[in-house]
Each structure stands twice: as structure tokens, then as C-alpha cells.
Write a structure and sequence with these properties.
alpha/beta; Rossmann fold; UDP-galactose 4-epimerase, domain 1; 7-stranded parallel sheet; 41% helix; globular; binds nicotinamide-adenine-dinucleotide
Length: 328
């Protein structure tokens, strides 16, 4: 079985490709034996079973040559659409966000629709589809049926993508799965242009003895997941048959509710008080306006019943980061 991954050079895309191949994930009774990455950058996964096509998914000419004429084949079973312009960047450049996050999603769906087989189509959506005023309380998670009311262009573009995938699935053009990802912590490497980038920085930098700045209040609850759990959940979403998903293909992936202060408590338990002291609070109204509009907890009962998983607690997330990224 062949799988196409847009954003295959990115943080999650590369990890998804590795996991699909290392575990020979089974889709519709067939193991995944080859993957095509489509991204602006070459896919870093060194594996003969990975083909890397580089180009801009917002360029319909590239999609035609790379996807329709080159990648889509008889044995293709799924397209995982992860390429995106992330939150702060989509807010700063409206036209770029629209081209990459919305227009390219529709172009990809049309390419899949024209394929001879009904393909599974996995879309990485985000908490940013929600709006302000939702419960931030752990004991009252936001119900699944709450509709999107985004307060950012990124959130609006993801919400429009969700609706497209649901409708293309309803019409039988693709077999869609929309995963609303929690904020992913701890992300290795350097800060990126996501508004939630600080959530990784305040753990990652102190673990390496470097200072970090927190732009939001310590009391703010965040809905979090480790990269390990998210990648496992993306693979699960892809491998599930469409039937138990029913008509509504959008899933709130499970996460855990943790306040910024609780994250720092866990950092202190794992790495000591000196690590915590490296984090200083410097409020940033622009970041706060975006991140504080996201719910701090979602009702994930349906995804949990479908076999998706959450991390045990925030200490476990830090330990997983150390095992996966800091030991070699
Ligand atoms: N990481 C998170 O916390 C998080 C949370 C919610 C949703 N998501 C979603 O998950 C997906 C993957 O996120 P990530 O953290 O791996 O992001 P990332 O920025 O690491 O990867 C995105 C990839 O998309 C590629 N890309 C961007 N524009 C492109 C274009 N025009 N043409 C081709 N490729 C292009 C980039 O080169 C990059 O490799 C995204 O859709 C993102 O919106 C991530």
C-alpha cells in the first residue's frame, strides 16, 4: 500500500512517515510499503521506501505534475494532508494562509476525487477552530458538538478545510478523517511561528539550560499531547475503517488539560528548581489573544472509545521528550 504525505518534511509529517513504515501500518488489509512526501523541503527520512517530491502545494501546476501525474498510483490508499502555514504566520500573511491552508486543500481533494479509487484522506486540523468563551475547566470539557467560531485566519482556514473534508466524504469522493490536534509539547528544535510555540520552549529550553519566555499567564489551561501520542493517533486515524467514524469525520484527538504553572511544576519535578527559574513571564497581548481563545479541555469520549489515546500526565510528556529527542 502506498501513502502520500504532504508536509512530509515537517515535524509531524516526518515522524508519521517513519511510524507508518517502521510498523508497516495495515490499511484495508495491506501493509504500507512505500510513502511519497510532498513538501517545500526534502523529506529527512532516510529510507529507500520514501520518495520525496519538492514543491509548493499552492501551485496547481505542481500538484498536477507531482500528485496527479507522478505520485497517485494504483496502489495508493491514502493521502495525509499535513502541509500548512501555521498560526502566527497565517495571521501575519492572510493571502499565503488562504492559498496554502484552504485553496491547496481543495486542490488536493479534487485530485483525490479524480482518482479511480476512493482514497482515505487524513487532515490535520487544530484547536484554533474554536473561539473564545468556551469552558477552560478540567471538570467541564468542551462538548464535541460545539461548532467552530475561530478567532484567527489559521483557525478559519482549518475550519473550512474540516467542512470540505466532511462534505467530500459525504459525497463519497474521499474517505475522510479530520484530526483536531491538541497543542503538541514538547516539540524539539527551534521555536516556530505557531502562536503556541512557547508551550514547548518553556520546557525544551530550560532542559538544555537556556532561558525561555512565557507570553501568557501561568493560570492559562492548555490542551496538550506529546508528539508520540499524536503520531500514534494519526496512524490510528488512518488505519481505522470509515464505518465507525460515521457521518461526522471530525475528531477531537485526546489530550490532557494542564495549566502553564502545572507544566512548570512538572519541569521542576523532572529537572529541579534551577530549570524552572530559567522561565520568565513577559505578557504578549497578540499571542495571548490567540492562545487564550482555544479551549483548555475537550470532550474526547468518542475518540477514546474508538481507540485513540492520551498521555498519562505532563511528567510523562517530559520523560517521553527526553527519551525520544535527548538521548541518542
Ligand atoms: N504541532 C502542533 O502543535 C499542531 C497543532 C495543531 C495542528 N497542527 C497541524 O499539523 C500539521 C503539521 O504540523 P507540524 O507541526 O508538523 O508543522 P511544520 O511546520 O513542522 O510542518 C509543516 C510542513 O508543511 C510544509 N509546507 C508549508 N507550506 C507548504 C507549501 N506551500 N507547499 C508544500 N509544503 C508546505 C513545510 O515545509 C513543513 O515541512 C499542520 O497542518 C498543522 O497545522 C499542528
Amino acid at each position: 500500500m502506498h501513502v502520500i504525505v504532504t508536509g512530509g518534511a515537517g515535524f509531524l509529517g516526518a515522524r508519521l512517515i517513519q511510524k507508518l513504515l517502521s510498523e508497516e501500518t495495515v490499511l484495508e488489509g495491506q501493509a504500507v510499503t512505500r510513502v511519497t512526501s510532498i513538501d517545500l523541503a526534502p523529506c529527512p527520512v532516510a529510507d529507500d521506501r520514501v520518495e520525496s517530491l519538492t514543491g509548493d502545494i499552492a501551485d496547481s501546476g505542481f500538484i498536477k505534475s507531482a500528485l496527479i501525474e507522478e505520485a497517485l498510483a494504483e496502489d495508493t490508499g491514502a493521502v495525509c494532508h499535513l502541509a500548512a502555514v501555521v498560526s502566527s504566520q497565517a495571521e501575519a500573511d492572510f493571502d499565503l494562509g488562504m492559498r496554502v491552508n484552504l485553496d491547496a486543500t481543495r486542490t488536493l481533494l479534487e485530485a483525490c476525487r479524480a482518482h479511480s479509487k476512493r482514497l482515505r484522506f487524513l487532515f490535520a486540523s487544530s484547536l484554533a477552530v474554536f473561539g473564545p468563551g468556551l469552558s477552560q475547566s478540567r471538570s467541564q470539557p468542551v462538548p464535541e458538538a460545539i461548532g467552530p467560531q475561530p478567532r484567527s485566519s489559521y483557525g478559519a482556514q482549518k475550519a473550512m478545510g474540516e467542512l470540505l473534508i466532511n462534505d467530500y466524504s459525504r459525497r463519497g469522493f474521499v474517505d475522510g478523517r479530520v484530526c483536531r490536534l491538541p497543542t503538541i509539547v514538547v516539540r524539539p528544535g527551534k521555536p516556530n511561528q505557531a502562536a503556541s510555540s512557547f508551550a514547548s520552549s518553556i520546557i525544551r529550553e530550560p532542559l538544555s539550560g537556556i532561558e525561555a519566555v512565557c507570553p501568557v499567564a501561568g493560570e492559562l489551561p492548555l490542551w496538550l499531547s506529546s508528539p508520540r501520542a499524536v503520531v500514534a493517533n494519526l496512524v490510528h486515524a488512518l488505519a481505522l475503517s470509515g464505518e465507525p467514524l460515521g457521518d461526522w469525520r471530525t475528531l477531537n484527538l485526546p489530550g490532557i488539560t494542564v495549566t502553564v504553572n502545572e507544566m512548570l511544576d512538572a519541569l521542576e519535578r523532572v529537572a529541579g528548581p534551577s530549570a524552572r527559574q530559567l522561565v520568565r513571564f513577559e505578557p504578549d497581548a497578540a499571542i495571548d489573544a490567540i492562545v487564550a481563545s482555544w479551549p483548555g479541555g475537550l470532550d474526547a469520549a468518542r475518540p477514546l472509545a474508538l481507540g485513540f489515546q492520551a498521555d498519562a500526565d505532563f511528567d510523562a510528556i517530559i520523560h517521553a521528550y527526553r527519551e525520544d529527542e535527548l538521548t541518542s
